[in-house]
Amino acid sequence: MTTTGRRALLTAGIAAAAATALPGCTAAEEPGPRKPGAAEVEAARVARAEAALRLRSVTASRSLLERYDAALAAHPALAPRLTPLRRSVAAHTKALGEGGTTVRPATAAPSPTATATASAGATASAGASAPSPAPVAADPRTALNELAAAERTTSDTHAAALVTAPPEYARLLASVAAAGAAHAYLLTEGARA
After folding, report:
1. Dihedral Cα 178, 137, 108, 116, nearest 10 deg
2. Residue 135: CB partners within 8 Å, gap ≥ 6?
3. Which string of DSSP letters, residue by residue, matches the chain?
4. Per-residue pLDDT tens for 14-46?
5. Is 91 in contact with 115 (CB distance < 8 Å)?
6. Cα(first)–Cα(last) distance of the chain, in Å?
């Protein structure tokens, strides 16, 4: 055998040994799970806080929507006055929930008879696990005043959330809070004008 042949054989053997040893070394050198950085931890915290804020906002609006449904069921004669406002509250509920909450907002405004049937069916199927909406006053004027008070409370809740809301969501909350204040006016003072 020539010197060149021995060198080629020796080089091939070293290359084969290195190829076999390297994967074992690299597997041992691979780091474990990467710890999130400070920016990632902060981004996750902000996302959780925004999701919680959205859930609270949607829950408040959903509760108001249920109050409208109860008022419509108790006083079908108020439907011409309440249906447009209820439709607006449903749209606000949907808008507040977009982009991060699992609460499903209501869709279209039902007719007064469908509302009564749906409310009765929902109450019967929900059983004791779901909280029942506040009782509606027998007097239509008192029912409107109570609904106006619920609008003001929900509006105040949305306005208070502005402090911690991200800018885009804060603008939406401000708009919904202003609409709630207008609804409260229309339910009480607007009727007198």
Report:
1. 180
2. 70
3. --HHHHHHHHHHHHHHHHHHHHHHHHHHHS--SPPPPHHHHHHHHHHHHHHHHHHHHHHHHHHHHHHHHHHHHH-GGGHHHHHHHHHHHHHHHHHHHTTT--PPPP-SPPPHHHHHHHHHHHHHHHTTSSPPPPPPPSSHHHHHHHHHHHHHHHHHHHHHGGGTS-HHHHHHHHHHHHHHHHHHHHHTHHHH-
4. 555 555 555 555 555 566 688 888 888 888 988
5. no
6. 114
Instruction: Answer whether 151's CB lies under 8 Å from 184's CB.
Output: yes
Q: Which of 98-102, 159-163, 169-173 has the lowest mean pLDDT?
A: 98-102
CA atoms within 13 A on the CB side of 50: 17
Establish how many alpha carbons lie within 13 A of residue 183's alpha carbon, considering only the half-sphere containing its beta carbon.
32
CA geometry: angle 131, 99, 153, nearest 5 deg: 45
Q: Are 74 and 90 in contact (CB under 8 A)?
A: no
> pLDDT digits over 57-75, tens only?
999 999 999 999 999 999 9
